[in-house]
Amino acid sequence: MNLSERQQTILKRLRDEGGVISSNLLTDYFDVSVQTIRKDLNELSDLGLVKRVHGGITLPVQSQNLPFQNRQIINLQEKEQIAQSIARDIPEGASIFLGIGTTLEKIAEALLGHPGLTVITNNLNAALILCQNDRITTFLAGGRLRASDQDTTGEETTAFLRKFHVNYGIFGVGGIGETGTLLDFSPEESNISRSIMENCEKRLLVADRNKYMRSAPVRTGTINEIDRLYIDTIPENLKAICDEGGVKIVECAGKVEGQ
Question: Cys-Cys with 83: which of 14, 16, 64, 107 at CB 3.0–4.6 Å?
Answer without folding.
Answer: 107
